[in-house]
Write a sequence for this structure.
């Protein structure tokens, strides 16, 4: 690498990317990128560092939504009081990422653009229906987070031309609950064997009006158990209902055998257990 540039704002960062015509690479925490450079997977001649751009370092709550600047670190999000109160599953997910050192530098946007299907922060945001703003020199577009992963390790955001600037999450108007569950070989610095995030919303009569159940890594992108979700809508929360939904989610999931994470059959069983636990926890907020 020949240069490491530190733009003062998003406009200047985009100008740098345009100037170097694909030879520059956007970075923030760079916890994944540095490994890719070391392994020879990518070889940018210029790094454009957006980790300290003020307009990408914030959490705001207004007009019925939470907006998170894409350069916020996992540690900052996990500790944010608004996140803890409004979307506790996101706080829990960010707190599960890597080690304290990694959480202090790795960013939310980095996890999204790196497109790792089991990313502990991406799974809950998928369950919340998060939307991302992606900027380039021609303007900006909004794209659902669930549509950004192309395959493992590759997203539809081009870090040589584009910047993921912020993430928006709509806050349900009525009662809702969220939960995040994770199984890993050990407590610290381990990739999850399975992680699950859920969001439940309730109508005035207490019946479930909307449900999202996301599990990973059981596919090349974070996986929504849509049949399990549909099974719960219109019904009152109960232990029996959640056991049924968890069994359906187990049927829907199709993880492959992995030397690192265990057999597909083992992880299918874990999906059932974690979904049932997460639904039970999320439902407590609906009472």
């Amino acid at each position: 690498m020949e240069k490491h540039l530190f733009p003062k704002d998003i406009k200047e960062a985009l100008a740098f990317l345009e100037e170097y015509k694909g030879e520059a690479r956007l970075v923030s925490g760079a916890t994944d990128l540095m490994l890719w450079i070391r392994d020879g997977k990518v070889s940018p001649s210029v790094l454009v560092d957006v980790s300290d751009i003020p307009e990408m370092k914030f959490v705001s709550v207004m007009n019925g939504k939470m907006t998170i600047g894409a350069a916020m670190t996992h540690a900052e999000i996990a500790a944010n009081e608004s996140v803890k109160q409004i979307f506790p599953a996101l706080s829990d997910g960010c707190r599960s990422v890597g080690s304290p050192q990694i959480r202090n530098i790795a960013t939310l946007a980095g996890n999204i653009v790196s497109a790792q299907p089991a990313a502990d922060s991406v799974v809950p945001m998928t369950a919340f229906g998060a939307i991302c703003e992606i900027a380039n020199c021609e303007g900006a577009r909004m794209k659902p987070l669930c549509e950004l992963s192309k395959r493992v390790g590759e997203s539809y955001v081009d870090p040589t031309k584009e910047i993921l600037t912020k993430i928006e999450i709509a806050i349900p108007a009525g009662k809702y609950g969220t939960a995040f569950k994770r199984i890993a070989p050990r407590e610290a610095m381990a990739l999850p064997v399975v992680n699950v995030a859920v969001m439940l919303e309730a109508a005035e009569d207490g019946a479930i009006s909307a449900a999202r159940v996301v599990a990973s890594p059981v596919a090349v992108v974070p996986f929504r158990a849509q049949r399990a979700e549909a099974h719960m809508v219109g019904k009152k929360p109960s232990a029996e209902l959640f056991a049924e939904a968890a069994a359906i989610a187990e049927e829907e999931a199709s993880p492959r055998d992995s030397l690192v994470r265990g057999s597909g059959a083992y992880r299918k069983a874990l999906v059932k257990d974690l979904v049932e636990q997460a639904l039970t926890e999320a439902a407590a907020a609906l009472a």
Q: What stands out?
A: The two ends are 55 Å apart (CA to CA). DSSP finds eleven helices and 14 strands in the chain.
